[in-house]
Known about the structure:
Blueprint: H1 27-57, H2 72-81, E1 100-103, E2 109-115, E3 119-126, E4 129-135
Antiparallel strand pairs: 1-2, 2-3, 3-4
Amino acid sequence: MGRRVSTFRQSPRPPVGLTAGVTRGDPRRHLSRKAWLVVAAALVAVAAAVGLAVAFTSGSSSHRRQAIVFTHDDYVRAFMNATVGKMRVGEISSWPKPYQTFTDQYRHQCYEWWDKGHALLNLCFKKGLLALKATE
């Protein structure tokens, strides 16, 4: 008996990777390179836009609010003038930046200043009106 020859041909292994099965000179390969270039160009454009937005919105130091610095006497005077039930939250804009802000157990919006070497001063507002003032 002779050797039997099969007419069925095995297919090659399936392609692997982005450019698998694409031969040199095939236009599909160039399209994928073009796509990568478009993506890279888009990323560069987005990064440039973010950089410009940050640069132009930060402003110069001359337009920023000057830092307010209080002495111990300034803190005492301001704290004594803060009247519960009368002072509005907007009035603390004339104070220095708070040491911290927090919400207390009564859901008051509280601001705390540190009068170094003397005390912590707390002003707590409810619905924009001073509800509580305390020293620690």
